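Receptor-like protein 12, Camelina sativa. Tokens?
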Amino acid sequence: MKGFGNSTIIIPISLCFIFIFIYHLEDVLAAPSRHLCRPEQRDALLAFKNEFHFGKLHYYCELQRFDSHPKTKSWGNNSDCCSWKGITCNAQSREVVGLDLRCSGLHGRFHSNSSLQNLPFLTTLDLSFNDFYGQVPSSVGNFSHLITLRLQGNKFSGRIPSSIGNLFHLTSLYLPNNHFTGRIPTWIGNLSQLTELGLWRNNLVGEIPSSIGNLPQLTILAFWGNNLVGEIPSSIGNLSQLTDLSISRNDLVGEIPSSFGNLSKLTYFEASLNAFTGTIPFHLFTIPSLISIILSDNQLNGTLEFGNTSSPSNLESLSLGNNNFKGPIPRSISKFVNLKSLDLSPFDTQGRPVDFSIFSPLKSLQYLYLSYLNTTTTIDLYDILSYSKKLSILSLSGNHVSTTNKSSVSNPPSQQIYALYLSGCGIT
Ligand SMILES: *[C@@H]1O[C@H](CO)[C@@H](O)[C@H](O)[C@H]1NC(C)=O
Ligand SMILES: *[C@@H]1O[C@H](CO)[C@@H](O)[C@H](O)[C@H]1NC(C)=O
Ligand SMILES: *[C@@H]1O[C@H](CO)[C@@H](O)[C@H](O)[C@H]1NC(C)=O
Ligand SMILES: *[C@@H]1O[C@H](CO)[C@@H](O)[C@H](O)[C@H]1NC(C)=O
Ligand SMILES: *[C@@H]1O[C@H](CO)[C@@H](O)[C@H](O)[C@H]1NC(C)=O
Ligand SMILES: *[C@@H]1O[C@H](CO)[C@@H](O)[C@H](O)[C@H]1NC(C)=O
Ligand SMILES: *[C@@H]1O[C@H](CO)[C@@H](O)[C@H](O)[C@H]1NC(C)=O
Ligand SMILES: *[C@@H]1O[C@H](CO)[C@@H](O)[C@H](O)[C@H]1NC(C)=O
Ligand SMILES: *[C@@H]1O[C@H](CO)[C@@H](O)[C@H](O)[C@H]1NC(C)=O
Ligand SMILES: *[C@@H]1O[C@H](CO)[C@@H](O)[C@H](O)[C@H]1NC(C)=O
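Tokens:
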């Protein structure tokens, strides 16, 4: 009985071993065809590697602690290119489908004949944070399967190649922090799958094409730091999935379109340092997802209105300083109970009294800028310091400030103030 018992255990185990052995042998024998990348693609990658030198790693890579190293250094003749750093292959076809050379310290001019064009099956091309310069070859439009194209943080120049307009599968197009010139192309509206479009910090000119409104999947639209002019197309109000809109530091004019009140998923809206006029459509302030509205340093005028909203506000940052608003500060500012940063300096209340207790529900405030409100109301310093225990910067310059509220003095504020601006407040 013992022997029988043992053999019943041994037989399945040895069968199992044989099976595993055969399985692996088959694997090894099949390896040349199943596991090696295509020779012509390997050669294209090696040729691409030799088109560039190694330079310093991009400073941003150190900063972000990306997986930063010269990935192409490991590329050699005698191994499967699908196993090289930065390369992804299709599991069946062994075609190179992904090239991720972020932060690889590559330096040199891109030529139109770059052997990169011999990788026609790429779906991801990420050359971000290297030191490439020259024009992006128009042959980039031959990568008809491309889904992600990221070239940020290089020195690419010239126009954005129009052949990119043929890449209908693109969902992510990031070209920021380069030296691109010319206009934002109208054909951008043909890339109907785009979810992310980043063109910030280039030298782009002209108007924002209204065809942008044809990109219904867009969540991120970042054009800040260019030389864009003209008005914002109201078609942007069609982008119902938009979460991030940043167009600061351009020369845009006109009003913030009222259609922006329809951007129901908007989270970050940054449009400072332009020349916008008119009021802010109050519907904007009722979007529950909003965390940040940065519209300082424009020429916004008229009276400020925040609208009526029943849903709790998530707004953490509201920056409206250096505009030309006139009239009362809306009492409904009290509803933005999650504000950490509020900047209204200066704000022309036209000599009206200001009830500073409207700021008292803002218990999370860290930065509060209320300089030059053109009010005769005297602000009690200790009072306002008692509103938020987190306050670290308070600016009340150009207002009447008193420090005489005895009941507050006996109960002094406990927080650490880093900066207190009180010039021209009549304090001696
Ligand atoms: C790859 O092989 C070719 C020819 O065999 C040779 O000329 C080349 O220098 C090799 N490249 C590398 C990176 O080893
Ligand atoms: C690509 O073009 C550049 C300049 O136009 C030239 O120096 C280089 O030899 C060319 N490379 C190939 C592989 O043809
Ligand atoms: C690649 O694109 C260029 C310019 O767009 C075109 O002239 C060339 O025929 C294309 N090559 C291939 C292999 O498709
Ligand atoms: C791309 O968009 C332009 C207008 O911007 C249009 O004229 C053209 O037909 C579109 N091309 C394709 C292939 O859809
Ligand atoms: C996009 O917005 C424009 C202007 O606001 C409007 O005329 C157009 O009908 C909208 N298109 C779609 C598809 O919603
Ligand atoms: C917002 O969207 C609604 C419904 O889609 C539409 O009727 C309205 O005209 C839009 N408002 C603006 C200002 O575009
Ligand atoms: C706002 O400024 C614009 C442009 O300077 C002007 O046309 C408009 O009348 C101003 N509106 C108000 C309410 O002051
Ligand atoms: C907000 O509600 C108040 C009172 O309920 C009303 O007087 C005011 O007009 C409303 N404001 C807006 C912008 O709807
Ligand atoms: C302050 O308000 C008065 C109206 O009460 C107005 O005449 C004056 O120009 C305003 N001052 C500033 C600096 O806006
Ligand atoms: C003085 O401070 C107390 C407590 O913070 C406050 O209730 C009172 O309204 C203040 N009085 C004046 C005149 O500001």
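Residues 1-33 have pLDDT under 50 and may be disordered.
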